Amino acid sequence: MWKKISSIGSKIARIFDRHVVTPITRVVLKISNSFDKSSHKLESFLSKQTTLLFLSLFLAIVIFIFVDQKILNLTSNSAKVLKDQKAEVLYNEERFVITGVPESFDITLIGSKANLYIAEQTTSQGLKLDLSDITEPGTYKREVEYEVGNSSIEYSVNPSQVTIVVYAKESKNQSLSYNIINRDHLDSTLEVSDVKLNVDQVVISGADFELEKVATVEALIDVDKLTSLEAGTQTLKDITLKAYDKDGNVVDVEINKKEDITAEVTITSSSREVPLNFVPENEVPFGNAISSYKFSQDTVTVYGNPDILEQLQQDGIDIKIDASKLTSDYKTEVEIPKPAGVKQLSVNKVTVEIKVTQSSDPITMTLKIDALNTPSNLQPKADTADDTEVLVDVKGAYNVIHNLKDTEVQAYVDLSGYKQPGVYEVPIKIRARTANARLVTFTPKKATVRIELLKN
Question: Each residue of 274-295: pLDDT tens digit?
Answer without folding.
Answer: 999 999 999 999 999 999 999 9
